[in-house]
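We append the chain.
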Amino acid sequence: MDIKHMRYFTAIVKHGSMTEAANQLYISQPTISKAINDVEAELGVRLFNRNRKQFELTDAGQMFYDQSEEILRMHEALAYDLKNMVGVQHGHIRIGLPPIMDVSPLMAIMKTFHDKYPKITYQLIESGSGTIEQRLRQYDIDIGITVLPTEGADFDSFTFLSETLCLVVHPNHPLAESRTIGLDALRDADFIMFNEDFYLNEIINSACKNAGFTPKVIAKTSQWHFIEEMIQSELGVCILPESVARLLGAPSVAVEITEPVMRWRLGIVWNRDRYMNFITKEWLKHFQETFA
């Protein structure tokens, strides 16, 4: 068994059939079929359940897939890492981040890192925290910025921002003149919320449940700019982190929520006990040192 067998196998899993995998790899289907048969014979296990119309991984196949993905990533990164160790310093970093955050601290860190490593390129992918964690597990991104704590024990993380949540309303709203409110005052309010993928929703829903009511949601979105427009149109109220509330350009008022005080923590998250290339390690180290 060699690296190409793993590449063939993972292609079948990703594309759902030997035919499509063969097309994507520009090889014949008999070639890829023989390669999988050879691997199964060498390992002494079945990797696919072939009793169904679509290929399904056996338990052994799932384990082999996870290990093959890891080995292929390490193989692909080897040349970059060797070059980076001798000072060439090329690379690409994929960062998942939530739409609801003040990105100016992140941009400042990227600028100083870019000054140090000008040949590094980036891809910024906006998603809710749930999707970011899923993409980390699937190796679609290298680093995630998400709400802590995470749901899984397969991540390492550190907090770089902790702040309170506040109520955001239009200046004409009856609560706009209040300095502080209790959450119970929003029992009959029309809520503008983020989509279910955002952990911020869980914080808000849990707090409202403890206060004895379920928020009446009139709209959901994945973009805080849409929330900004809906507040401007006096469609409802929203609960946002203080840093995001300060960024709203439309006329709005932020009101402190004191009963209960709600907080959220943003953190950098990465896969624990899995391979991380040299340049991503350097970026993570730079980020941590900046906030130390």
User: Anything to note?
Assistant: Residues 97 and 103 are 9 Å apart (CA to CA). The two ends are 46 Å apart (CA to CA). Residues 59-85 form the longest helix (27 residues). The longest strand covers residues 155-169.
